[in-house]
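Fig. S4 source data, part A: sequence.
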Amino acid sequence: MIRLVERPTIVAAAGDKPKQIEEFVGRVNTGDARLSVARMRSPAGWREPGQRPEFLEVTAVLRGEVHVEHAHGVTVVRAGQAIVTDPGEWIRYGTPGAEGAEYIAVCVPAFSPGIVHRDESPTAPPGPGTRPPRFIERPTTVPGGGNQPIRIDEFVGRINSGDERLSVARLICPAGWIEPAQRPGFLEVTLVLSGQLLLTHDNGTAAVNDSQAIVTEAGARVQYATPADQPADYIAVCLPAFTMEGARREPG
């Protein structure tokens, strides 16, 4: 099954300053409990209360920097970097830099106010923790398939971080790119940051534009491409993590 997400839902954000959260996939916008994928735009000086979530969270920074406070200190995550926070660990997010930050947040299972377990105040002292988050200082660039070279920067996954549960990557594809058809054994969420992505499936072709997303369920036959006159820059989240064997690409 293929589901086009034409627009995100703007959901309320915690913290001491206004922050925009665009949920593309999750309990609010699509009714998904397995995972959530959201884009955050956070102002300079924003800070939210500490929390001890029941979900795994991957934060991939697109612009600015996110400061992640934890029981072992503070990790600064800059554009082109990511951080993985494990369930049950105390963390607190903030964007004290002058330009704030824009970032992608992926939660497994999907984010819910009932399972985030926030502190009452953003100034509460740090809570105890057993291990620090996993800081992804740089992605691994891996080769892509198709008729033209594309850039795939894997932040989290089997190659860059040894994660099997999910993968999070950024793909930059030129105009006129087309990939072999495939029938993956994983769920995939594709969030377009700029340009347009074309997804051909059993019932036709879906055009996924800037600030739209598409969800492809495991077992669906799909083929990704870009228009002849337009490139695409997008985030791909796979559950479980992407593998070439799991993609089940067709020859050619």
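Fig. S4 source data, part B ends here. Residues 113-116 form the longest helix (4 residues).
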